[in-house]
């Protein structure tokens, strides 16, 4: 377009208007922007025949949809771009049908200048075509092509250029609507991908994702639908009778075999594929994805690269859903109880500390392992009330022990990251302690390495507040995660718990012995106690004593005990100085 571009901008927010003007100016467009804030101003400005219209969707008493309708009545050929916040898919499609040229989200204004240029080009092409051909049928076909072009833009992953989550889910729903039965959905998740972002810059991780997406897409047959769900998860849709899903899964895994080279870095990235089937494993896209994610976790647990959801898995899923429903009941804690595992001091056998462990004996499901129901409770949001019950029951037990004259001990309680990250965690915790006589210093919250690696600044602040309030902190299962000595110097930890995997065979395995020796030395340098978990043999105990470990926890010293059994156990132990 020759001359100065006349832009009509409908926007009531001063800051947003300034941002749009700044972005347009920064792209070198020769333009004048006439900003209006209401219907009257918009109608008046249309009389000056703007070259393009930009409009927010939500304004007091006058919406972007209203503006679009007026613009199409008065100036049907003028490009109309909605510049707004998140817009639902159905509403976006409806706006496109009514004549919207394009849609740019406010948090992605980098698309605005290209969208304006593209809209102007398309408008000029349409006008030229209409003048040349004068046939309404051709004009309608062009409008339809413009609609499909804009529609596709909303369903392309901005990083990798392949279909995004919305496009994939829509494709699944389309197959269901068309009655295609069965078809398969393959969920690919990259193993340990977060480590790349921890070790390098995020743009390096993005480049790895782009390279992997391109490599897998090229390895798959053209008719296979492949896209990115989110983060490091990708989805493949295999239609009925087109290809064997296991063979496609093998193709995906094989595509990951070669290293990805980005700048000076080389990454060998593996992945795990979960295979589910419609309609057996889910009646819609959301159901299929949930089943695929559950199946993926099982694949990781069993160590497989490719796992297909089976009829036995479906029975387990039904049981899982029933357990989830039970966990959401308010009175479920009435079916739960605590056991306490003593920690023995190596030098004299005294019991300075206990660990509270939750157990669930369900009338319907029987005795359930915490390893089974705790992750479920975290996933569905039931862990907070459960954690609060554990803390309160633990405090009541300590109060009872104090009243019976037992020497005071510390009580270790596992702290769920889900519970810790609640905005009201600290206030609720302090309110709970205000109802009991136990000092915070007698409670030791156990956290995992994974929590330290997530949002470290926030986590450091939260853990510091706990320490300042008097609580003790322990790092659980040390060495089993992505260990990084850097974070240990930043977080206030009183106790380091050495995982059972390093204790096993410590008396005959020199490698394990060397690792544990290093952990104990590190803890001593930090002024922290060490607790060896899962000690079962006298030989293991003696090796730990030789290495200078402070405490042991495991069947060699004591199994987890119910309250009355704990009291009987403590009566035969040495008092705690």
TrEMBL record:
Residues 6-121 form the Response regulatory domain. SMART domains: EAL, GGDEF, REC. Gene3D superfamilies: 3.30.70.270, 3.40.50.2300, EAL domain. Keywords: Coiled coil, Phosphoprotein. The keyword Lipid metabolism does not apply. GO terms for biological process: phosphorelay signal transduction system. The keyword ATP-binding does not apply. Residues 316-574 form the EAL domain. The modification 4-aspartylphosphate is found at residue 56. PROSITE patterns: EAL, GGDEF, RESPONSE_REGULATORY. Residues 116-149 form a coiled coil. It holds the Pfam family Response_reg. This is Response regulator receiver modulated diguanylate cyclase/phosphodiesterase. It comes from Leptonema illini DSM 21528.
């Amino acid at each position: 377009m020759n001359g100065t571009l006349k832009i009509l901008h409908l926007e009531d927010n001063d800051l947003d208007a300034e941002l749009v003007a700044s972005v347009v100016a920064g792209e070198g467009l020769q333009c004048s922007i006439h900003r209006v804030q209401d219907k009257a101003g918009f109608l008046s400005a249309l009389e000056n025949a703007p070259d393009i219209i930009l409009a927010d969707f939500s304004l007091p008493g006058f919406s972007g949809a209203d503006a679009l309708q007026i613009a199409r009545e008065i100036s049907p050929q003028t490009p109309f771009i909605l510049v707004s916040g998140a817009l639902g898919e159905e509403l976006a499609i409806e706006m496109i049908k009514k004549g919207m040229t394009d849609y740019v989200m406010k948090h992605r204004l980098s698309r605005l200048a290209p969208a304006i240029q593209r809209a102007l080009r398309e408008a000029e092409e349409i006008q030229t075509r209409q003048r040349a051909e004068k046939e309404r049928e051709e004009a309608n076909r062009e409008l339809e092509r413009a609609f499909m072009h804009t529609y596709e833009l909303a369903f392309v992953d901005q990083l990798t250029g392949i279909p995004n989550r919305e496009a994939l889910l829509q494709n699944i729903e389309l197959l269901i609507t068309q009655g295609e039965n069965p078809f398969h959905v393959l969920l690919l998740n990259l193993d340990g991908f977060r480590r790349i972002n921890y070790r390098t810059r995020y743009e390096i991780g993005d480049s790895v994702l782009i390279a992997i997406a391109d490599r897998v897409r090229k390895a798959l047959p053209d008719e296979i639908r492949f896209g990115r769900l989110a983060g490091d998860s990708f989805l493949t849709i295999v239609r009925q009778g087109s290809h064997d899903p296991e063979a496609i899964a093998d193709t995906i895994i094989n595509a990951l075999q070669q290293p990805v080279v980005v700048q000076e870095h080389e990454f060998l990235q593996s992945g795990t594929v979960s295979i589910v089937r419609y309609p057996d494993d889910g009646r819609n896209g959301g159901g299929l994805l949930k089943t695929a994610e559950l199946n993926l976790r099982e694949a990781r647990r069993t160590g497989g690269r490719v796992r297909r959801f089976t009829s036995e898995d479906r029975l387990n899923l039904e049981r899982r859903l029933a357990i989830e429903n039970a966990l959401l009941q308010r009175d479920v804690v009435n079916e739960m109880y605590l056991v306490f595992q003593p920690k023995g001091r190596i030098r004299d056998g005294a019991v300075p500390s206990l660990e509270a462990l939750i157990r669930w004996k369900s009338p319907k499901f029987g005795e359930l392992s915490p390893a089974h129901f705790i992750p479920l409770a975290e996933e569905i949001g039931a862990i907070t009330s459960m954690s609060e019950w554990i803390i309160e029951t633990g405090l009541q037990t300590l109060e009872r022990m104090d009243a019976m004259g037992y020497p005071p001990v510390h009580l270790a309680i596992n702290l769920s990251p889900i519970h810790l990250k609640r905005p009201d965690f600290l206030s609720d915790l302090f309110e709970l302690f205000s109802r009991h006589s136990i000092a915070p210093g007698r409670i030791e919250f156990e956290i995992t390495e994974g929590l330290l690696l997530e949002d470290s600044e926030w986590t450091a602040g939260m853990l510091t507040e706990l320490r300042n309030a008097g609580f003790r902190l322990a790092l659980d299962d040390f060495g089993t995660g992505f260990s990084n000595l850097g974070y240990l110097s930043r977080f206030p930890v009183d106790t380091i718990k050495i995982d059972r995997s390093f204790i096993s065979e410590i008396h005959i395995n020199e490698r394990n012995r060397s690792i544990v020796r290093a952990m104990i030395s590190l803890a001593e340098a930090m002024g922290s106690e060490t607790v060896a978990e899962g000690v079962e043999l006298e030989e293991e105990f003696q090796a730990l004593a030789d290495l200078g470990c402070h405490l042991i926890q495991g069947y060699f010293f004591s199994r987890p005990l119910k309250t009355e059994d704990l009291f009987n156990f403590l009566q035969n132990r040495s008092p705690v100085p």
